[in-house]
Predict the 3D structure of the following.
Amino acid sequence: MTTDDAASGEKLTSPSEVVRRRMKAQARKDTRAETQLRRALHARGKRYRVAYPVPGRRRRTMDIAFTRAKVAVLIDGCFWHGCPVHYIPPKNNAVWWEQKIRANRARDRDTSLHLREIGWRVVRLWEHETVAEMVRKVEEALASAAAHQE
């Protein structure tokens, strides 16, 4: 398996077939954090799109999108996105994993920058945040978007 390194343009080669299978099986949407946040937002009367495509960026999606307000919500997993609080780099194939996480972070930055450039507000959340924290951040972004539309 190869993965594009967004920062350097290099291809990363997975360390083993076992890792490739494990990564392929990893949930990419409907994670626990996403479903809990969606339930809480829905209970508050918020309506949104799920796995909404990022305009102009093939194969990238927003976890939750408020299309009228142009608010994009992206929930990053602590392992896959290198959370500064919880990420512990694997000892096996350390160089490959360092490059992989660096590439993920670079793609995250590119996606956020692109969305902002085309007029979206971006809310990036970590999976370890409480649902209450996540809801508060999303509602703040929605309120800010509404204030600027008036």
In short: Residues 1-8 have pLDDT under 50 and may be disordered. Strands lie at 2-4, 11-13, 49-53, 61-66, 71-76, 121-126.
